Amino acid sequence: MAFNPLEEKGMPMEKQFKSWVEVNTKPYNKDTVHPYTRTRGILMNGIEVEAALFLHDFARHTSDLELKKTLALSRRVEQQQQKAVNWMIPGNESTLEVTLGYEQVAVDLTAFLAQTEPDGYVKQALDFALLEDFDHLYRYANYMKMTEGKDPSSVTKQYTEITVGRPTALEHRHPLDEIRNFVDCKKADPVTNLHIYTIVAAEQQTMNYYMNVGNRFTDMLGRGLYQEIGQMEEQHVSHYESLMDPNLTWFEMLLWHEYNECWLYYSLMQEEPLAEARAVWEQNLSMEIEHLRVACELMRKYEKKDPLSLLPESMPQIFKFQSNIDYIREILGTQMELTGYGTDYIPVDELPKDNRYVMFQSQVNATGSPSEAVIDTLIQKSGNDYRNEISGPHPWAPYRRTEAVPAVKRRLEASA
Ligand SMILES: [Fe+2]
Ligand SMILES: [Fe+2]
Ligand SMILES: [Fe+2]
Ligand SMILES: [Fe+2]
After folding, report:
1. pLDDT value of position 416
2. Which of 48, 99, 276, 341 has minimal CB crowding within 10 Å?
3. Is the model's pLDDT at 1 over the cut of 90?
């Protein structure tokens, strides 16, 4: 029978607090870990950070003391889960290696959600930003090659290609072109809500991560690269969060947060090869089942509504980290030239003259962009950029190595 978190018995709340030793998870071995174990950890860290921050926000918007106490209880557990998950990352994994993991999450999470998304507008939003995070992976990989000489595919392995996406320098759009229409949660397929909640939390965590670690680099180019891509993650959070239904009540949002956590832990434990990680996913699922039960109770008590009428009757199709090479190539081959335009997307060359995109680009890229400088520097140093094109040459002709690299060399010579 299909798994239904609403019919399962979770871990009682009073048993959810763990000792320091139990929470201090044994880190994985960075040389042998499966890349998708790393990405599962990064994703669920983002989900737990969102869970804790959402519960803080909720508590700041109620004067009901009893409610504040109930929220504090599960919030402390969300914090504990966040630490158990994020402490799986070993101390010897560098900030840059973790960063490649973050962008691999963005690529393969987004590509899977897009392929399973029933709402055309939401799918387009996912495909659109997919090409941008895909490019971030390429820029950071080249920075790694340039500064450490290390092979970036030692992190991502042969699951995710590394090559040019929609070039980061061209992704910077005016803030007014990052806001999308929202989805009516009650009319949408439940899986659409789960997708939106998941991608917002993941992009938000990436934004927060770059906000904090981008200044850990000693050279100005690396510091600039993290700033530039960090601002792109701000754009991505704005883009995705505007899809969320703003008409949900706090109790409805709580319900969706907890249901989403159940859906994700249940999904991730299906394919986890690492025993320690699998134990974390399983244990957290049993806690989330109880959080969901509490959220249902709160809704009945405070809003006199039936939570079951809002949630799916059975668990939707599970989420999977898997290789999405062919799908991403299809989007690379068809959507490279799109840009945001109001709440929609159009090819850059169809923008009206004097559009704010052009104005914004000329401001932020006035002195060039670190994401371009990284590639230029590596080409100057080694004669080539770094790519891991597993299924052949780039699907978009102008970005094939045979065209793109000589073009950079000509430009550098002309400006020398
Ligand atoms: Fe949680
Ligand atoms: Fe990104
Ligand atoms: Fe992103
Ligand atoms: Fe939870």
Report:
1. 83
2. 276
3. no
